[in-house]
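Sample entry (324 residues):
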Amino acid sequence: MRKLEAYAVSPFTNLKVGRDKIVDFFSDHKNRIIQAVADGAPFADLLTEFTPALGRLADSKTGTAVNLAQQGSETMTVDNIMETYKNEITKLEAIVLVQFPKDSVEYHEFFPQGKTAFHRLTKANILSLFGITISACGHYSDKIGEASEHTFIALRDAYIAARDRQQQKKESTGSTRSAWDDNLEIVSNLAFHNLLMIADNYKNQPEKLRLFFDVSIATPDKHTNDDGDSTEPYTLVIPATDIAVANISFSVDDTLLLSNTGSAPLYYYGAASVDQPLPVTPFELEVDDEVEVTAASLGAPANKFLLFKNRDEFSEGEVEIVMV
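Predicted structure, serialized as tokens:
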């Protein structure tokens, strides 16, 4: 005899497939109930709460996708400004060296820890570096002119504005993600209720349940790693600031579900070799984000490897990968 507790556990929690397939699974369940009701089954009441709840779940999926795309755009703007700052620092050094030797006090006022420190900037220290640059440019404007100071003030202001937009969009994304989680819990609980009511109607006929739930829709495909073994969802840990290669193989027709299950934001990209550097415009995967990615979008079949870059200086990153 099975433990009685097992019958009180919903099979619809922690579905390991992408949001599109989750919505497809529950939509298919709704349509099967509608068809059964049309054929005379006594389940019309099951749709009263389930149908609008499913609609809210689908809406929250769309809202999250839109916000993630907008957040990615704002993040790219921030990253581009940071790269522009680095380029302007290189130009500034050339201007400064015309007036002051590299071992002078004046040069070190511009570059207290050398130019390299500016090229290793992060979001945590960029405003401090802007302050150093703008202060030095203003102090020696009689020697290097005023254009440099104006350039860096404009860049700083653009960075602050872009960073604020990015943070606002991130909060908005978190809100819609929370809405998805809340709606998914409601729909999952209602589906479990439906399951129990259907089972009660068809006592000792477990095969009838398959008429109302196509579990294949919500069942993740197993992936094959480089050793040829079929495995469950694959987890990759990425050390702080490092790049790691996923030990999976994929074909051009595959779709992958990527879930950032760690505490660090990540970049990901397809590559033809394991040592390929980060591209200019990699894909982003923020903490708690999940995204369905086609192998074709990663550059398959030419790109056979999936690489992840940890964007955090201190925390390990972690990503879970499932073939869907």
